[in-house]
Design goal:
Distance between the termini: 14 Å
Helix content: over 70%
Shape: globular
Number of helices: 13
Length: 298
């Protein structure tokens, strides 16, 4: 521990605040799959992702302009490109393509594996090595979520699985790099500049995709688009990266073990999907694993 570390320890209040911010991000993300399904009522998959990214980038650009935020340093742009490619473009596109044929419960397998994958990426990228207790709890939580979501989908592989596992990898990389950058600049600026990097491609993609994919506007479709743009992509990533910067990438990532279960709740209430009686049991098991990871040395 350095003199600076000992002089500025993380207080219980800071940790609590960081956990709350990361949890808000998880809640925002848990609505992404149901909102995407709604959005697909009005837009094609390519149009939905392109317009979503363009709207989120315009929101972020407005904040950056009003706050007169200077351009990031040259050393930050490579990391921002990883965030943009993984979180702004890769994950939304791959999961949207998957949700054309997969149910939200099946797609939740991705989120079930994401905390473990993010922790692994963070260990490699940052050099931090969580304790064995942390890894056992993380593996246990992932196993519970995977077993639950696979049971929900009947255990059969679907055509969207390749998209889902690809989304898992690119998102874990984007989360890890974004969490690292959020220690060097405010989390909302990490999100903002990553979105701005994608704006030219998003605008061009929107114009092209809207030309070839039919648009049938419905209330669900518009609400779904607005949420994935403003809620999931901008607000969700903003509080998520702030939370990761406060409590660490590995610990924050384990809060996402609750995300598939929240997604299933939204799927039942918003999409009329049926929920298994095993859900309460799985919820308790996951919450226990989360509690262990939050107390374990990371």
């Amino acid at each position: 521990m350095t003199a600076q570390d000992s002089a500025t320890p993380i207080t219980p209040i800071a940790v609590s605040s960081g956990t709350l911010l990361a949890a808000l991000g998880v809640i925002a993300f848990s609505l992404t799959f149901p909102s995407t399904v709604w959005g697909l009522e009005s837009f094609g998959p390519w149009s939905l992702v392109a317009v979503r990214s363009a709207l989120a980038a315009l929101i972020a650009g407005g904040f950056l302009l009003v706050m007169r935020v200077p351009l990031p340093g040259r050393r930050h742009w490579a990391g921002l490109a990883v965030v943009a490619g993984g979180v702004v473009v890769g994950f939304p596109l791959l999961t949207t393509l998957a949700l054309r044929t997969s149910t939200t419960s099946h797609a939740a397998v991705v989120v079930g594996l994401l905390p473990l994958t993010t922790a692994a990426f963070a260990a490699v990228r940052t050099g931090r090595r969580p304790s064995p207790t942390f890894w056992l709890a993380a593996l246990g939580g992932a196993a519970v979520v995977i077993a639950f979501t696979v049971q929900q989908s009947g255990g059969a592989l679907q055509t969207g699985d390749l998209y889902l596992f690809g989304a898992l990898l690119v998102c874990a990389a984007g989360y890890t790099e974004g969490g690292r950058l959020a220690r060097q600049m405010p989390g909302w600026q990490v999100v903002g500049w990553a979105l701005m990097l994608c704006l030219p491609i998003a605008l061009a993609g929107s114009a092209l995709a809207l030309t070839f994919e039919p648009v049938r506007l419905t209330a669900h479709g518009v609400i779904g688009l607005l949420w994935v743009a403003a809620g999931s992509t901008f607000f969700g990533l903003y509080v998520w990266y702030r939370g990761m910067a406060s409590i660490g990438i590995a610990k924050a990532s384990q809060l996402q073990l609750a995300q598939p279960l929240l997604t299933l709740v939204w799927s039942v209430s918003l999409l009329d999907e049926r929920l298994s009686p095993a859900a309460p049991v799985a919820a308790v098991a996951v919450l226990v694993c989360i509690a262990v990871t939050q107390r374990a040395k990371s």
